[in-house]
Amino acid sequence: MLLELKTPQIMPEMKEARIETVYARAGQALKVGDRILDVSIDLGSAFQQNCPPISYYRLVAREKGWLRELNAAPGDLRAAGDVLARVSTEPDEPVDAPADRPLRLATAGILGHPMMWSAKPRP
After folding, report:
1. Could you tell me the end-to-end alpha-carbon distance of the chain, in angstroms, rounded to an integer?
2. From first to last of its 123 residues, what are the pLDDT tens digits of the chain?
3. What's the pTM value of the predicted model, to 2 decimals?
4. Partners of 83 in the beta sheet?
5. Is the distance from CB of 118 to CB of 20 less than 8 angstroms?
6. 48, 82, 86, 102: least CB-packed within 10 angstroms?
7. What DSSP assignment string belongs to the chain?
């Protein structure tokens, strides 16, 4: 069975998320509890505040499978609902068919950390 990991709509005001950290790699077997990605959400355009309302979240697998394709890299800005990855329930399953359903995920609020894309200096 093919599953899709889409950018989750974590809150109604969210339009997009930035990929901060990628933990999983294409070809990797995922088990329940594996970290897949960290993302950040900037709600500055939705709410006026004195400081940017940025929050961080970790996406964690809630079911096992094989990560077959990963279309996300640190720094990418992805709209809610964009397909970030395709996962299969069998290691050798063809991935050219439509997905049967979304990958089951847990989404947890986290603190920013030094491994995140936004924490690194850029030229």
Report:
1. 43
2. 999 999 999 988 899 999 999 999 999 999 999 999 999 999 876 556 666 688 999 999 999 999 999 999 999 999 999 999 999 999 989 999 999 999 999 999 999 999 999 998 877
3. 0.90
4. 6
5. yes
6. 48
7. -EEEEE----STT--EEEEEEE---TTPEE-TT-EEEEEEEE-TTTS--SS--EEEEEEEESS-EEEEEE---TT-EEETT-EEEEEESSTT---SSPPSEEPPEEEEEE---TTSGGGS---
